Amino acid sequence: MRYLFFVLTLWLPLSLHAEEKLNVVTSFSILADLAQQVGGDRIELTNLVDADADAHVYEPSPDDAKALLRADLIVANGLGFEPWLERLLASSEPAGKRINASAGVVPLMLEEDGEQVPDPHAWQSLTNAEIYVRNITKALVQLDPDHREGYEARRDAYLARLHALLKRADAQIASLPSSQRKVVTSHDAFGYLGQAWQLEFIAPQGLSTHDEPSAAEVAALIRQLRSEGVRAVFVENIRDPRLIEQIAEEAGATVGGTLYSDALASEGPASTYLGMFEHNLDTLMAALKR
Ligand code: ZN
Question: What is the pTM of this model?
Answer without folding.
Answer: 0.91
